[in-house]
Structures are given as structure tokens and as C-alpha cells.
Amino acid sequence: MRISQELIDPSGHWQLHGAPVEDAGLVLFFGGRALLDDPAIFRQIRQRHPAAILMGCSTAGEICGTQVTDDTVVATAVHFEHTRLQLARTAVSDAGDSRNAGRRLAESLDADGLAHVFVLSDGLHVNGTELVAGLRAGLPAGVVSTGGLSADGARFGRTLVSADGPPTEGCIAALGMYGERLRVGFGSLGGWDPFGPERLITRSSGNVLYELDGESALALYKRYLGEHAAGLPAAGLLFPLTLRSAEHDQPVVRTILGVNETEQSLTFAGDMPEGAYARLMKANFERLIDGAIGAAKISQSLSGAPPQLAILISCVGRKLVLKQRIEEEVEGVRDVLGKDAVLAGFYSYGEISPHTPSAKCELHNQTMTITTLSEV
Amino acid sequence: MHSLLRRQIQRYLGDPDSVPAAWRPFLDAVSAGYEQDDSDRRLIDNSLEVMSTELEERNQTLRKELAERRQAESRIEQSLSLLRATLDATADGILAVDHELRVESFNVQLLEMWMIPPQVVEAQSTRDVTDFMARQLTTPAAFLETARHLEAHPDADSFDTLELNDGRVLECYSRPRRIGEQIAGRVWSFRDVTQRREAETRLAYMANYDAVTGLPNRNLLRERLDRAIKHEARKGRSLALLFLDLDNFKAINDTLGHEVGDRILQLVAKRLLACLRACDTVARLGGDEFTVIVEDMASMDGVAALAQKIIENLSHPFPLDGHELFCTVSVGIAIYPNDSDNLDGLMKNADSAMYRAKEHGRNTYRFFTEDMHQRAYERLLMENKLRGALNRGELLLHYQPQIDVESGTTVGIEALLRWNDAVRGLVQPIEFIGVLEDTGMIVDVGRWVLAEACAFNKSLQEIGLPPIRIAVNISPRQFRQQDLVECVAQTLQRTGLAAEYLDLEITEGTLADVLEAHDVLERLSGMGVQLSIDDFGTGYSSLSYLKRFPINTLKIDRSFIRDILTDSDDAAITAAIVALSRSLRLKVIAEGVETAAQLNCLKLHGCDEVQGYLFARPMPGDVLIDWLRERQRDSAQAA
To answer: Is residue B81 part of a domain?
Structure first.
């Protein structure tokens, strides 16, 4: 496996990291929505890698090595020696179609020899929980999918996904990886601390939450945010919810995607079923960074070989909390994975991965999710 | 720039505004870091404050809920103790079981009422308990069936009355016990109603019976009278209602006191009952008024006789504390349906008849209608006279000859009963035969007639007259006597008259009960006695019996003979009877022949024998003997 990384800065200048890979089979590119909206960017990537599968999405921050940047594009070109790739895509116009979309994607990939699936999805028009459920139902047993939901900074406006074409809204791309010599590791950890009382979800619909313990959920959030309430919905990322229900093996974390003042509702990145118990969470710098390190360790222990490429998908919420210290979590990952591993990734509206190797794949929020790849 | 950073620059580096431009981005980043920390701290402070407020609120809520729960628990404890006390204080036996038929709760009364040993209920098996109960019942199967039904239908109610072998009566209620919509079990409750039952029975008795005499009261009388009227109406029969009022009871009551009055009433009741049949009802209406219902009334004079009997019975003195008290009665009689066809009308009319009896001097009876009263009175008078008539020798026989049409010779005589009343002289049978029949005296009289007639006929033979038949009428009541055949046989034997000279005349109506009549007629005929059908053509007759019965003669009723010359129907009927007799080989005799023209007509039709004024009226025995001798002489001369 040979890898090179290119960074396009906000003014459109290209910087190359590492020896250029001319014969890349895959280019993963993550960038600010404004740049990706510019058709010239995609054209330029295509010109540099005419034979590669181009797969990417808009973000809330790009990871290139241990550097975290905003409003840039990071393109990582990968040449696989022993791994075959197949890209599937589907369009989603309505969140209600999310589960079927997951199933469609899973079924359009060749099942034979499928080792792993990497997914990038629209971050605002897709119910991530349903998408993951559809993927899980459609994929052969034992095949895991990891990935994330695209983002639009802290704006929650439009999110874009590219599946070997110009990035568009409402798009989901799934990359099937085949080959016996491919080693895949994955791990996902949050590091948030739950606090305050557990609250019963008394009114909700899909991923829209209205009431906790019979009271307006939005009012509760505003009370906790105090002076930061004006910054909703992004400020909501400071207080994600942990969800305990019969549906999930382990508690899952849900992050806010939107606010509806008229309905007094909050929209989350995954299902908020009535009858489940929710608890507010808050950040602790050290614990967040420990979380990222933990995810890296799990991923490394799974891959069974020194990782050559690590795709880091971390939650926009973490970035809002850590601010200037955001790179500490990427550095923590680098310390675990070593200098040889190329780090690429982005800050997302949702992460897809099993919590632990034995657990089923789920949608997460507020986590650092790492997928490590290597060929042996 | 963050105020802290500005102060630090001021202190260590001099004027912050004159810091070199190259340092600017660095200082901005440091300033942002300071501000982030401040912001994060404020956020945490705020959230901690909010959280502690919230936790405090929840704490308050929990305290309140806890207090409420404690209150509720104490209320539950209170209501449980109230329930327990209520259960123990009630007189009912209570058994509560759960939906799996385990005994949940019971009270002391249950154990006492059913004499259940504690270990039976403590074993908690509902079936054991119900089985134990069932063994004490007069009908255990029914109770067990109910219990099993309720097991199968947990939502069903039941109410039963249980009779115990020891005579107690329990009411048993069983209702499902629910918690919300769910059936949680069942509660049985048993109430001892033995005393209530007895009181109800007493009350029912008091409602219908007079406390002093024990006779039915007005209430029950009305009920019985109503039923009797309907019954008699269906049967097409009559009934009599007698109203009795003691004539001088008020005086006894006023002078000797209520106690004596009550005892008199009891004695009156006793005497009244003694006068009546078991099927009759005597009731006390209150005061000194009594009422009698006579159902299936045989005859008017029967009722009059009963009234008379009552009056006579009560006219005897009542012995009381060494005194003899007299208490006569006035009786009013109303007849259904003649006087009224409804209960109230009948009561009213009997009452007014009773007042008329009082007006007629008390100690007497009165029918509601004067005409009826008169008739009944006369019949009763006649009955009384007739009772002694036989012994006094006032009854006697007259004889009317029967003539052979062809030869003109006397072939028989008919014995006819006459009553020679001391006051009225000779009374015609039509006036008194009915009374004899109604009273049953006809049986004795009939027996006497038979004996007298046979003896007379034998005496005719003994004085040398040619032997002839003697016809004797047998009344329906006489015919039904079990010993008729024996009686005839004995009479013939005693008088020595040969059977062939006895002719028994029987009306068509007598033969209505064909089977029984057939047997009697066969036996009489077997003896050689002649048998005639009297008044033939007047009754509703089935001609078939003519063939089946051993009959010798048909006697054409006098009503056909009377108009035989003027009424073509009568002539035709007579002709038909004669023709019928011919074909059945029966003899025909016509009675009431008064003219030669009638005789000629009958001769033309072929009638065998005749009887009537044309030849001779009925006459006493000695006159007949002379008449027969004269006829004998005449025929000898003619020969």
C-alpha cells in the first residue's frame, strides 16, 4: 500500500505530503463545504487521479496527519497492492428512506470476498441509525461497516457526499473492500461524562425529541447552556445525550443536529425512542483525549498488523469543546499508531462503527471513530 | 485581548499596544485560550447550578411523594383495619378466595355459622371448605354444582338460599372481586335468615287467617271465592255464597267481655266446620261475620238444607264457664251465576240477603231472590215431610193396565208411586220424585216400590187372575246402586213372583254409561226379568245400544201420542219407532192413549201394546182387582 496526501488551502493552493502516488486506486477527500461546492476542486482531483475511485464529503474540519484544519480539502491517494475495491452509491430524498438506502447499498456490493465496507453519508437528510440498521441487515454476516456522516462546519446547513462524482446533497457512498491480505481495525470511543438525573423520553418521533419527563427538551437545553443558548444548535453539542434503551446493547450517544423553536423540538443524529432513558453528558478535556487514544488502541489491536492508513472520523462536538486543543486528540492517536501510519479524516455529524469488535455496528455521536487499514 | 493577558503584558513587557506586530497572532491565540477557559468554567458553573437546582427539585418531589406514599400506606392500613373490624362485626359469614381458589380471608362468623374447624380454612383450599359446607346441606349437589359453575365463570354472580340439615336457612351470595378490570378472586357471604323465614311464614299466615278462630280471613276468602267462581264457570256449575251474622253477639261481647266473645267465636267456627264438607270454605270476615262457600252445589234445597243445618247447630246453647250462652245466626245466600257472576256482586248480594234474614226475625236464612227463596223453602218443606212419609205409610202405589192392541186383553200393569200427604192430599209424582232423587231417598223408596209391586202382582196370581207383567220404574240413582241386581233377585225370591212377570222400565238417560249399564242389564235379563226403555224418543239416544242391550220393549213417550193425529212429525216419529222395533224384534208400547182415534192410528202403525185413560186411569190395588175381574168377565161373555 502506497499513500500520499495533498492539502488544498482556503486560497486554492496545493501542498503535497509524501511521495506522490500516481497510480492511486482510491482517493478519499474531505473538505469544507464551500470548497467542495466549487466544481473546479473535484475536477482538479480527477485530473490528478484519473483512474482512482474518488470518494469524499464535506466536513466540520479536516484531519491531515496531526494537523486539524478548517475550510481546506485534504485528499488522500491510496494505491492498494492486493485489495480490490467496489463503490456503491444511492440517493436519499427523505430520512424515512434511510433503512432501505442502507439495504440497497449493501445489496449492490458483491458479497463474495467482501472484507469491509466504508460508508460516507449525507449528514442532515439521513437518519443514521436507520441507515446503519439497513446496512447491517443487507451485509453478509461478519462484514463490518465503518464511516461517518458528512458535516457543514457548525452551520448545519447543507452536507455533501461524492461517490466518484461531483459532491452532492442526499448522497450516500459505500466502498466495498475485497482481498485476503487486507487487514482492517476499528474502534470508537467518546470519553464524555454523564451527569445529572436520568430522564425518560416521554414524547418523540423518530429522531425528533419533544419532551423529557413530560417537559420541553429544548427548554431544558437552554437552561443548561445559559449564555451559550444563543449558539444553538451548535451549542447543543456541548451537552450530548446518552441513551439507554432495550434496543441497544450499550448506551449510545446522541448529538443535536437542529432546533425547531416553533415545535419546541430538537433533532438528533439518531433515533430518540419514547420509553428510553436519556442523560445529559458534559466534556472533560482529558477524558476526550483519552477516548481518542482508547479508540486507536482498540483499532490497532484488531488490525493484527501495523496500520498503514488510519481514517479518523471524529465528532464536531469534540471540536467545539476542545477548540485550540483539538489537535491533542489526533496527536494522542498518532502516539498509539506510530509514525508510519498516515492519518486522514474529518470532523463529522455522526460516526459509524461497532463499539467493540463483538458488538453490532451502530451510529455514534461525540466519538472518535478510527478505521485502520494495512496490507500484508 | 483577554484582560488577564493584557495585565500580564503590562507588567512584564510594557505597553500592550506597542507589542511588535509579529507577536500579534500568538497573543491572539493565547487570549482566545484564556477566554475559552473562562467560557468553559462559566458553562460548567452554570450547569452545576442548574443541575443542583434540578436535583433539589427532584429531591423535593421525592420527599413529597414519599410523604404521600406514607399517608397512602397509613390510609390503606386504616382501611384494612376498618375492613377487618367490619368483617368481624357483621353477622354474615364471609369467605374471600383468590382466582386460584385459595382461601384469602374469612371471619369468625363463617366458622361459627358452618362449624368449620380452623384447620379446614387454614389449609386454604376453597374446595375443601365448600365440600365441608355441602355436607351440611339438604341438597348438597345443587350447591356443589353452583360452586363448580362459579369456578368456571369467575365473572359470574350468584344468589341462592341454602337449607341446612339442622333446619337453618342461609342466604348465600357470591360475587367476583376485581382489581381494576382484572378478576382477582371471589367473595362468598352467608346470612342466617332462619328467623326471617319463620317470621315471613307467620306473616303470610296472619295475612290470610283470622287470629281468633284460625279460619281464613277476608283476604283468603276473596282469593278462594275468585278461584271457585272460575272453577265452577269452567265446569258450568253453580256455587252458593252464605253470609252469616251472629244475631246477639254484640250483646255477649259488651256484657261478658271480648275474651268470652272470642271463645264464642271459636266455638261457632268449630260448629260451622262440623256442618260442612271438607271442600267447602268457611271464613271469618271480622266481628261476628262468617262466610261459607259451597262449591259444586247439588241443588238449591241442598243449600237451604245446609243453611238450616247451620242455624240449627248454632241454636244449641254454648256451654261456657258453667253458663249456657245462646247465639243464633242469620244467613244470607247468593247463588252463582244466578244472582251475580262476579265476586263483588256475589258478596254484596249475600250480604243484603243476610240483612233480609235479619228483617225476617233473625235465626233464619234468606236467598237473595224471593222466588228462589220460596222454591227452596217449599222443597225443603217437602223434603222434611217426605223423610217420614214412607214410615208413616203415606206412600202408596197405583196401577195402570197395559192392553194388547190386537187382542184387547190386559197383558200388564204399571206400578205408579203416589204420596198421600196429610195436608195436601194425593201429590203427583212430578212434584216430589225430583226431591227424592236429589236427597237420595229415592233408593229406599225405589226398593219399597219394587217389593210392593212384586208382592201385589203375586197376590193377583194367587187370587186366580191370569198372570200378567208388572212394570216398575227404576230411577237413574237406583240403577247406579251396586246391589240393584241382588235387590231384584231377593225381591223376586221373597215375593215368589216369577221373573218373567217383572218388567223394569229404565229411561234412556240412565243408560248413558254404556259399559256399566250393559253389565247390569245382562244380569237382569239373564234372570228372566223383562226390560223396557221408558220415554223413548225424548232423550238423546244412541240407537246402537238398542242392538247391544238385552231390551224387550220400547215405550213411546206420551208427548208423541198426544199429537199423533195433528202433528205429522209426531206421527212420523211414532211410525219410525215402531218400524225400528220391528226390525230389532222389540215390542212397542204407547202410553198416554186417550182417544179411540189415537188407538186406531197406533193400530195402523203396528204398535203392540197401549196404556192410557182410554182404557183405565192408574188406580189403587183393590180397585184394579175389581177392574181386572170385570174385564175377565166381559171377555168371557164376549167369548
So the answer is: no
DSSP alpha helices (H): ranges in B368-467?
A: 370-389, 429-439, 441-462
**Which chain A residues are within 8 Å of B40, Cβ to Cβ?**
321
Q: Burial code of B489-522, b = ≥16 C-beta within 10 A, e = fewer? A: bebbeebebebebbbbbbbbebbeeeeebeebbe
Partner residue facing A324 (CB), from B33, B46, B47:
B33
Cis peptide before A166 (omega within 30 of 0): no
Residues B113 and B164 in one domain: yes
Chain B positions touching A238 (Cβ under 8 A) are: 43
Distance CA B572, CA B601 (A): 11
**In chain B, how many domains are there?**
4
Distance of CA B116 to the CA centre of its chain: 45
* Shortest Cα–Cα distance, A232 to chain B (Å): 14
CB contact under 8 A, A195 and B43: no
Last residue of a domain, one of B175, B197, B219: B197
- Cα–Cα distances (Å) from B80 to B20, B71, B73, B74, B287, in that order, read 87, 14, 10, 10, 60
The model scores a pTM over 0.95: no
pLDDT single digits (tens) B282-293:
999 888 899 999
Q: What pairing do the DSSP bridges indicate for beta strands B619-620 and B395-404?
A: antiparallel
Measure the CA–CA gap between A208 and A95, rounded to whole angstroms. Answer: 12
Exposure b/e, B377-415, CB count within 10 A at least 16 = b = bebbebbebbeebbeeebbbbbbbbbbebeeeebbbbbb
Which residues of chain A are within 8 Å of residue B47 when distances are taken between CB atoms? 195-196, 224, 226, 239, 280, 282
- Cα of B13 to nearest chain A Cα, Å: 25
Whether domain A193-282 has CATH 3.40.50: no
State the smallest CA–CA distance between residue B9 and chain A in angstroms. 21
Do B287 and B251 lie in a common domain?
yes
Nearest by CB to residue B47, choosing from A282, A321, A323, is A282
Strands (E), B24-168: 93-98, 103-106, 158-163
Do B183 and B216 reside in the same domain of the chain? no
| A339–B contact, CB cutoff 8 A | no
Same domain assignment for residues B284 and B137:
no
Shared domain for B55 and B156, answered yes or no, is: no
Least confident window among A11-15, A129-133, B410-414 = A11-15
- Give the CATH number of the domain where residue B593 resides: 3.20.20.450
Q: Give the contacts of A185 (CB within 8 A, at least 6 positions apart).
A: A298, A299, A300, A301, A302, A303, A304, A307, A370, A371, A372
Nine cell digits for residue B251: 250483646
Higher pLDDT, A311 or B181: A311
For B442-475, the pLDDT digits (tens) are 889 999 999 999 999 999 999 999 999 999 999 8
CB contact under 8 A, B54 and A195: no
Same domain, B270 and B145: no
List the domain range (segments joined by +) for residue B163: 87-197
Instruction: Give the nearest chain B residue to A325 (CA atoms).
Output: B33
Q: Report the half-sphere exposure of A268 (CA within 13 A, side-chain side).
A: 30
State what percent of residues in chain B have pLDDT above 70: 98
* Burial per residue of A16-32, b for 16 or more beta-carbon CB atoms within 10 angstroms, e otherwise: ebeeebeebbbbbbbbb
- The answer to whether A323 contacts B32, with C-beta atoms less than 8 Å apart, is yes
The helix (H) or strand (E) run that includes residue B239 is strand B239-246
Task: Please give the torsion angle defined by the CA atoms of residues B361, B363, B367 and B368, in that order, rounded to the nearest 10 degrees.
Answer: 60
In a domain, B402, yes or no: no
Residues of chain A positioned with their CB less than 8 A from the CB of B51? 195-196, 224
Degrees (nearest 5) of the Cα angle B601, B604, B607? 85
Question: In this complex, which of B36, B42, B54 lies closest to A323 when CB atoms are compared?
Answer: B36
